[in-house]
Amino acid sequence: MKKVYVLIGNYGSGKTELALNFAFKAAEEGKRTELLDLDMVNTYFRLAERGKMTEMKEIRLVSPNFSCSGIETLSLPAEVASAFAMDWDTVVFDVGGDAVGSTALGRYHQDFMELEPGALEVLNVVNIRRPLAGTVEKIIRLQEEMEVHSRLKITGMINNTNLAEATGPAELRDGYEMIREVSERTGVPVLYTSGKKAMMDQFLSEGHDPKYIGTPLYIDTYMARDWNSWVRSLSE
Amino acid sequence: MALTLMKGSEAIAEAAIRAGARFFFGYPITPQTEIPEYMSARMPEVGGCFLQAESEVAAINMVYGAASTGARVITSSSSPGVSLKQEGISYCAGAQLPCVILNVMRGGPGLGSIQASQGDYNQAVKGGGNGDYHLITYAPSSIQEAINIFSFAFDKAEKYRVPVLFLADGIMAQMMEPVEMPEMVDFKVDPEKKPWAATGWKPGDDPAKRAVINSLYINTEELTVHNNELQATYREIEKNEVLYEAYLCEDADFVITAFGTVARIAKSAINELREQGIKVGLFRPITVWPFPYKELAEASRNAKALLDVEANEGQMLQDVKLAINGAKPVEYFGHCGSLMPTTDEIVAKILEMKEGK
User: Fold this and answer.
1) Model pLDDT for residues B69-89, shown as the tens digit of each residue
2) Nearest to A230 among B31, B113, B265 (CB)
3) pLDDT (tens digit, 9 = 90+) per residue, B121-177?
């Protein structure tokens, strides 16, 4: 059965990074995979920047018209329809941040509704270290707004709490505590917890309730910018 | 306090609010549109005012109006938008209005590109508008530094009654770094401390104390007196407000001069060169006006030569040369437009200088 993952969430919560990880994992398992960039908000972090990588892994990438050419028109190509019309094993939608970003999904409402039952996962990527997702109330409000704008029901959350290169063991743990409360209050399950291997193993060994961890996702970072390397020399 | 992962634009906006800014007027332009976006969500939460003006020209004139009341007010834009604001900035300088202007530089001239650049250095420090005026101009090199500077930027603007300019670039606005935010400042306009501000006048009050906010002095003598006062203020600022960082300059054979994001790239290059045993240091002006002339001359006293690195045609190079005053060779490396100098390029350039090519 075709599996469709839609990644929405707070601006800068790590959706694009996770989208690549979901797609790469699927492709490595031999699945026919399509990856769609539906970000109509931020023109700076485009999947197309990793176009060579996705091509080498035989993943089909659909990007907004003229993306990365310097003349963004913020319009979606007709090929988005291929996600629904063609026979993929895995489809991953990387959507723009916040409610405003998830608006782009609304246009495909009919297509999403016609998917087989159980095919669709709408995942809210949560990083509680981001200022507008730093409290239970903010996460819940954002979740509700995104559902209205996307015309989709969120089926699960991903705990992707991180501080980029400065991530420590406290990040996943604090994320776990807060997202657990969100889950208890909204009934939306925690389906995944994602992080780099060392952090994740440390977190998993702490004996938290698996119900609020979901499936552990070991991720790699592909979207790191060249400027990240300059950050290091700053602290010296 | 826990660290937060913030994008430069958001962090700068939040830092401004925490420093007491309650009025934001602006017009969207890449790569800083996240600043107005964040302000539009945040200002109502703190009882402030976010207003998307019909143009950059309108926005800076709204700044003029709001700053006249003594409030803490801010506007942001990117290069072409900041060009549009120049008339209003000159008016603010003339009327001695404290306010903060952010320029998130992108490639130029004209509409240029939406990628980072440092092409507005001259506009910022040599006066983009008309008349003899200066802005205290900060060129932070990290998001945290921008936040830290914000905690005193309004105080400086108010102390000297001058507009303050932040010279950032597209990379700083778009990059994300873990940062620590200061506490919210409880700022209220105090008419006693700001007798010049238009905070309300009722019949019976001393007419001589009415606030007149103005940059027009038709009478030549009056304009001269006004300018002399401004000049005296600028000399005070030059004396008191210079900020810079000198990194490994003490024993350096070569001192690199760079500001903002480019200084970080230079720092990486310096670390690489140091590992090869080549003694290189960095001199980074944090205030590009007032420029640390004396401090640069002092920091590079043991150096054989200097290398100025910029993401422009070498606009700061002229100030570096003034500081060195012909005492030693000063070379330049960089690119115009939006192409950032890279660590490798800087390393190669220093090696070339070392071999005397």
Assistant:
1) 999 999 999 999 999 999 999
2) B265
3) 999 999 899 999 999 999 999 999 999 999 999 999 999 999 999 999 999 999 998
Contact B292, B324 (CB under 8 A): no
* Residue A73 confidence class, pLDDT cut points 50, 70, 90: confident
Which residues, including other chains, have CB under 8 Å from residue A232's CB and lie 6 or more apart?
Answer: A165, B268
Report the alpha-carbon distance of residue B65 to residue B213 in Å, rounded.
9
Residues A58/A68, Cβ–Cβ less than 8 Å: no
State the total domains in chain A: 1
Q: Closest approach of chain A CAs to the CA of B116, in angstroms?
A: 12
- The CATH number of residue A184's host domain is 3.40.50.300
- Give me the residue label for tokens 């063991």: A169
* Domains delineated in chain B: 4-179 (3.40.50.970), 246-354 (3.40.50.920)
Which residues of A fall within a CB distance of 8 Å from B343? 229-230
ipTM strictly over 0.90?
no
Q: Which residue of A has its CA nearest to B176?
A: A164
Average pLDDT over residues A89-101: 95
**Contacts of the segment B346-352: beta carbons below 8 A, 24+ positions apart:** B346/B256, B346/B265, B346/B266, B346/B269, B346/B307, B346/B309, B347/B269, B347/B272, B347/B273, B349/B307, B349/B309, B350/B254, B350/B256, B350/B269, B350/B273, B350/B278, B350/B280, B350/B307, B351/B273, B351/B278
Q: Which of B31, B171, B271 is facing A227, going by the closest CB pair?
A: B171
Domain around A133: 3-7+10-227
Q: Tell me if A232 is assigned to some domain.
A: no
Q: Are A181 and B24 in contact (CB under 8 A)?
A: no
Q: Are B311 and B258 in contact (CB under 8 A)?
A: no
Dist CA B64 CA B69 (whole Å): 9
A235 inside domain: no
* A41-50, A81-90, B126-135, range with the lowest pLDDT: A41-50
Give A193's pLDDT tier (boundaries 50, 70, 90). very high
Q: 3-class SS at B324?
A: helix
Cβ atoms of A111 and A81 within 8 Å: the answer is yes
User: Could you tell me which chain A residue has the CA closest to the CA of B42?
Assistant: A132
pLDDT in tens, A132-175: 888 999 999 999 999 999 999 999 999 999 998 889 889 999 99
Chain B residues inside the 8 Å CB shell of A11: 7
Residues of A with CB under 8 A from a CB of B: 11-12, 43-44, 70, 127, 129-132, 134, 162-164, 166, 174, 225-234, 236
Cα torsion through B232, B238, B241, B242, rounded to 10: 170
Among B10, B200, B316, residue whose Cα is nearest residue A129: B10
Cβ atoms within 10 Å, residue B74: 30
